[in-house]
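Open question from group meeting: does this chain pack into something compact, or does most of it stay loose? Before anyone orders reagents, we agreed to write out a predicted structure and look at it together. Recording both the input and the output here so the notebook holds the full record.
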Amino acid sequence: MRIALIVARADNGVIGVDNQLPWHLPCDLKYFKQVTMGKPVVMGRKTFESIGRPLPGRTNVVVTRNPDWSAPGVRVVTSLEDGLKLARAQADLDGADEVMMIGGATLYREAMPFVDRMYVTQVHASPDGDAFFEAPDASQFAQTSVDHHPADEVSPAHSYETWDRRATH
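Structure tokens returned:
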């Protein structure tokens, strides 16, 4: 069972500002849906609140330190470990090959030691922001695919990158 992370990050590492995405990138939202559909998604509470509803077609697992927090249509856990355990069990039931970590910055940092694959949308811009994601560490991850897209009237230039954890000896 693969643990994967999906993130859109700017060239300066920004992934968010005021709990929102700092760009309008409709094609990335479609890509996100395509990659995550049918797979359990694990997110932090702030990410869930920024989305505003459970993502359809996916088991939604929300990690929060507040044991009294709840929202309709989501499974709530109080630790990343419990979230991974629940998501893995659900992926097995659903026949999914991946569990998806979908943010935000705190969850990404905590999950990184467990991540086998990263789906990174590299947005070729440098907006202001208050949430960040470091560029993939090439000593730990190898880029296995990249698909470049030029800017258009709606979206900044961006690249879809896949990074797989390097084998350890």
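Observations to bring back to the group:
DSSP finds four helices and ten strands in the chain.
The mean pLDDT is 96.
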